[in-house]
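Can anyone check this?
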Amino acid sequence: MRELTAPQADDLYELISERSTSGGSLVLTSKGSPVDWYPLFPNPVVAESLLDRLINTSHQVFMNGPSYRPNKRPGGKDQPQTQNKEVG
């Protein structure tokens, strides 16, 4: 995730806040921990409030292990190997 502008941060705050109070579902994925999100917000008060609501009303699933992405690359384990043929 990259740094948010003030309007983006406010929009995200409204979404998280609404979902946490209404009981609506929201699925978020991140490679980083919530602590790593603080510098991405221009206003530390919004960051603290958003992350507080998000963390305290969520079920966190931590997945450790090797990434599946390398297997999906061309030439990866799951891809058929092709031979280069010279045209001539």
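Reply from J.R.: I decoded it. The radius of gyration is 20 Å.
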